[in-house]
Amino acid sequence: MGLPLAYELYSTEPEDGGKWWERLGSAELNGFVDEALTSDFDIRIAWAKLRQLRATAIKSGADKYPTLDGSGSSSNAMTGSDGTESTKGSTSTDSYELGLTLSYEIDVWGKIEAKAKSGQLDFLVSREDVSTAAMTVAAEVVSRWLEIQAQRQKKVILEQQVETNRIYLDLIELRFRNSLATALDVYQQRENVARVNSLIPPIESRERLLLNELALLMGRPAGTVQVQTALYPDLEPIPGLGIPFDLIAKRPDIRAAGLKLQSADWAITAAKADRLPSFNLTGNAALTSAQIANIFSGWMVGLAASIAGPIFDGGLRAAEVERTQAVVDERLVNYKRTVYTAYKEVQDSLIQESWQKKYITARKNQLEAAKKNLNEAGSRYLQSLEEYLPVLNALLSVQSLEINIVDDESNLLLYRVSLYRALGGSWTDSLQSADELPREEGNMTAAEIKTASAE
């Protein structure tokens, strides 16, 4: 694969493929994710596709077994005479037949087995699609919940800023009445009060939109989800990462790409075998009688063998072999791209989180400096040593930084969510659907899926 042996920001902590969102410490959020994992529309669609592929896999393997068909018939025949030979009248005859037909194709070249293997692998791909959908939905629910908390924190800060700006406005108006401030100072501060007030409606609107998105993820109508206000959870140290090659087992999209590649390999085997003769056995057994009471007294049995093979098909079967070989080439490249993309996503999340921490530290230092600047500018203004413009600029800087830092801290948590999502995990192996059929004998377990996709 050409992957490096370790990540740039390597964590020596042991790997944990469990439900990572539970570490955020919110029982409400845990309930939201659990509900979404069973009610989200994309996940339910993925389960339905899984059942479709399971049935298709069973159909693909059905040709490995003989087929037995039953038949039955009855007929009535009537004969008569017109009296020219001194007889006149008619005779009715009833006939009955019961039969069985057994047919079986001998899989000399492995074509039937190859089709069955390909069908089963396609079914396993669909199960990995369920896991991919579940991981995506879990990350989306957590992200929406964190963004809702961010909007509420920003609203609280903006309301505090409105109150602060009104205090400044009252002070300036008082100074104006005492001829210590200009009308321009009053107008500038009034504009600042209006500016901050104007920022609140978009925050409230965004919160409502996020609540509606969260409701949809949980399979509910818009407006039916309420979220409690909570502080940002503490960010834990970077989780155990393992090594880049661990992604092959932990990422369902990588496992799915590997299974698709194996399915295409089996499709080549089936396509090649289809160019060779096929051998069939057919058996017939029939019970016949002119009277139903004696139907079991007359019987016959037949056994036939046949061979059929292509002589000229205009290149149809050869083209199918070439097509399936091209599919293998395509899926091989796609598999490698999927692995590299997964590695890039982990690396990107690590880099973003690392630099975001430094950025937040720098922003907070800037905020402290801006507050000191505001205090100094305000002091000089009250002493009539400066005009109001430096105070206004300092106030705008402080208030802007306060809002931006909320977004910065929210982004830091969202980068961690992206990291958990990029790392995959094994927690989806235990997912169950109320509509999912019981596991059939011969179907592979989740652990076997990982092993098969890694080979």
Write the layout of secondary structure elements.
Elements: H1 27-39, H2 41-61, E1 67-82, E2 88-106, H3 111-177, H4 183-217, H5 247-250, H6 252-273, E3 278-289, E4 299-308, H7 316-382, H8 388-423, H9 446-454
Antiparallel strand pairs: 1-2, 2-3, 3-4
Helix pairs in contact: 1-3, 2-3, 3-4, 3-6, 3-8, 4-8, 6-7, 6-9, 7-8
CATH class: Mainly Alpha
Q: What is the 3D form? A: elongated
Q: Major β-sheet, in short?
A: 4 strands, antiparallel
Order of helices and strands: HHEEHHHHEEHHH
Q: Architecture, according to CATH?
A: Up-down Bundle
- Rg, rounded, reads 37 Å
User: How many beta strands in the DSSP annotation?
Assistant: 4
Strand order of the main beta sheet, please? 1-2-3-4
Strand content: 5-15%
Q: Can you tell me the CATH topology?
A: Outer membrane efflux proteins (OEP)
So, the CATH homologous superfamily? Outer membrane efflux proteins (OEP)
Tally of domains: 1
Give the helix level as a range of percent.
55-70%
Overall pLDDT score: 83
What is the rounded distance between the termini?
13 Å
Number of H- or I-type helical stretches: 9
| Protein structure class | alpha+beta
Low-confidence stretches: 436-447
List the defining traits of the structure above.
single chain; 455 residues; 4 strands; alpha+beta; 60% helix; Outer membrane efflux proteins (OEP)
Characterise the protein shown here.
The protein has a 4-stranded antiparallel beta sheet, with no helix packed on it. It is elongated. Strand 1 and strand 2 form a beta hairpin. Helix content is 60%, strand content 13%. It has one domain (20-62, 118-275, 318-454): Outer membrane efflux proteins (OEP) (Up-down Bundle), CATH 1.20.1600. It is of the alpha+beta class and 455 residues long.
